Write the structure tokens for this entry.
Amino acid sequence: MYVKSLTLKGFKSFASATSMRLEPGITCIVGPNGSGKSNVVDALAWVMGEQGAKSLRGGKMEDVIFAGTPGRPALGRAEVTMTIDNTDGALPIDYTEVTIRRTMFKGGGSEYAINGTSCRLLDVQELLSDSGIGREMHVIVGQGQLDAVLRATPEERRGFIEEAA
Amino acid sequence: MYVKSLTLKGFKSFASATSMRLEPGITCIVGPNGSGKSNVVDALAWVMGEQGAKSLRGGKMEDVIFAGTPGRPALGRAEVTMTIDNTDGALPIDYTEVTIRRTMFKGGGSEYAINGTSCRLLDVQELLSDSGIGREMHVIVGQGQLDAVLRATPEERRGFIEEAA
Amino acid sequence: VQRVFAEAFEDTAREFEGVFSRLFPGGEGRLVLTDPEDMLGTGIEVEARPPGKKIKRLSLLSGGERSLVAVALLVSIFKARPSPFYIMDEVEAALDDANLGRLITLFEELRDSSQLIVITHQKRTMEVADALYGVSMRGDGVTTVVSQRIRDVQPDEPQPEPASA
Amino acid sequence: VQRVFAEAFEDTAREFEGVFSRLFPGGEGRLVLTDPEDMLGTGIEVEARPPGKKIKRLSLLSGGERSLVAVALLVSIFKARPSPFYIMDEVEAALDDANLGRLITLFEELRDSSQLIVITHQKRTMEVADALYGVSMRGDGVTTVVSQRIRDVQPDEPQPEPASA
Ligand SMILES: Nc1ncnc2c1ncn2[C@@H]1O[C@H](COP(=O)(O)OP(=O)(O)OP(=O)(O)O)[C@@H](O)[C@H]1O
Ligand SMILES: Nc1ncnc2c1ncn2[C@@H]1O[C@H](COP(=O)(O)OP(=O)(O)OP(=O)(O)O)[C@@H](O)[C@H]1O
Ligand SMILES: [Mg+2]
Ligand SMILES: [Mg+2]
């Protein structure tokens, strides 16, 4: 199982719909400071159900919606779609390709869809946790977050292992 | 006024007496991970009177004494001497060259000396603060400490400016 | 639940010894339960001894050493309980050349069984990528993906300038 | 005391606008008192608008942008209220090539009136050093200073290998 593609629309600095095709193996994302690399990481965490505004570097969840620039007005919604190659059946769902989509509107909450069918956050979380991706998202090591692993309490470190198990 | 030389003896990983001559202008210190560069920064903070074990990355103040290696026994004391060129009279003391020395013994406290004469911590702090180096040591930007400047509260930021003023 | 954690901890601890000695050749590290009697509530401590040094509190380790120990812990969890993909955002920041090389070797091992999405400024990390994306923000606050290169496929656009050597 | 702070703040705020626009060409930043009525207790807020973007909360800035804003604040304090020397430990970690160049330009300005002691892994930073020290720990846990080079003076030992390109 691997992430085949990621499409961002109105998510943070990705004002226009932008798709990235990802490969099994190592995909590197590069670019200057402030260009949007960590925003891609935020998009991955967000589409998988991240609920904490702080983990996405915002003050409230709506901060992920493209807020506009001096030359371009703000948008009313953010949408991220993640397409997963499921030929190995790691996701317990009967499709070789699985899309997970999250949409958030200004002033409203989030909507989720699996393969185009509306569902709840819980459905997304359960689908992913069976394949080894838990709610705490230990699979994502955010920028500057490496040292936090060592500063964590012994109990928190136990939590990492429990989540992965 | 500038730091002319720094001598470390038994301070952290500097087991044997080691002297470094510094220049006005830019002095760069380089070397592999774990070789002792930040220990030099700790030595500068320490000889200027740093009182917090945590600011020196230790659990207690005695952690700055060379703790030994599998091949070499621990030492009983740490000593750092800083020699300052004072030809411009920035330090309010009647010498063109000023040495500040701090010594710490295992189980004991610290001893201070200015130009070889025993003195108190307060004397060192007052001497330095008149030349623009305060107790909070805003002049030292430790490894990984840059972001803390932004994470500081508005009141803490006021503190930086007050200390420099 | 207790046994799930106990087994996960055993596997992770075993991986940790191996991974640690490959990141710190000649050194040794281990994971220790704070309360082995209480498998329901115990925490996990990390012990790290870089080569030629004595075991010390983690806070005394250098910036690069701390990064490496954190990587060792995470990669041990990844190897003991694999997930389909991992996302790493600029984890090499504190590493010197030699340690960066060791990290890259670990990435290449993880790639055999998992997808890695790596944000980086480092040329050497880019060189092992199977796919490379450049992001850019051309002064207008909106991110665009400027180029992509898939290994063994001719890019039809020029390769992105590495953000930093 | 209030007036000392008020003047220091004014000078720092004025420097900040200048320094910020040199680190973020086309952008603007300013320091704002949280409570201008209360000069005794007011805190200081930092507003930062990188070029082409809208002012946002600092937490949404990228890693490199945050480093640069922190540098702008510190250097503004250094310029408004100079100290004889400054010590910086690996502050470039999050910066791309372009921003590293801007930081080095700032270092060269500060050098005119203050001594800078800079710990670094970056070749370009080393190139502007007036003096260069290499530290090493040859597998025995003890730091040695392996070489020094003073600008315009022939080193009698080989120059240290830069720790990282
Ligand atoms: N909701 C939003 N609308 C528009 N722009 C946003 C939004 N949220 C964040 N940004 C912008 O995205 C930029 C940050 O991007 P990101 O953190 O991905 O950079 P980066 O490429 O990781 O850089 P670095 O190399 O410095 O880490 C910031 O300049 C911020 O202003
Ligand atoms: N009291 C002590 N006795 C002996 N060794 C010590 C003592 N305190 C710290 N050390 C050792 O010093 C080393 C850390 O050195 P330092 O932090 O200066 O490295 P560095 O050169 O800054 O590396 P990096 O590039 O990774 O930041 C650690 O390996 C630590 O074990
Ligand atoms: Mg980033
Ligand atoms: Mg260091």
Remarks:
- The two ends of chain C are 47 Å apart (CA to CA).
- Chain C touches chain D at residues 26, 51-54, 63, 90, 93-97, 100, 121, 123, 137, 139-141, 163-165 (CB under 8 Å).
